[in-house]
Amino acid sequence: MPAFVRTALVRQELMALYAARPAYQRNDYLMWINKAKREGTRLKRLQQMLGELARGGVYMRMAWSGGSGARSGPKNPQRAPAAGDAAKRTSRAAKKAKSRAKGRLTRKAGRI
Asked: Is pTM beyond 0.85 here?
């Protein structure tokens, strides 16, 4: 992390909020700030990051639902398989086998 970013985070007491963000967001912010060619652009981007951290619920000017800073579980936890899922897989496999038997699907023809 560049010294000027660290200094700004410490001065505005936002280091804890920055650290609570996911790694991809921290990396995105730092890369975005450092890629700026002009010093003025770097400072403008730094101010945007600091404002978003202070406000919470925002990431790169987009709404971010993890804005509380607390680590929670995944947004889309893996669902438990439904009772009909196994039947669907079986029926798909049966249809493929039936098509292969009729010659519609062959490995040599490259249709699989």
From this structure: no
Q: How do residues 39-64 score in pLDDT, each as one tens digit?
A: 999 999 999 999 998 888 888 888 87
CA–CA gap between residue 94 and residue 42 (Å, rounded): 59
Long-range contacts of 26-29 (CB under 8 A, 24+ apart): 28/60
Q: What's the average model confidence in pLDDT over 12-26?
A: 91
Centre a 10 Å sphere on the Cβ of residue 4 and count the other Cβ atoms it contains: 13
Domain boundaries, the chain: 3-63
Give, for 55, the enclosing helix (H) or strand (E).
helix 39-55
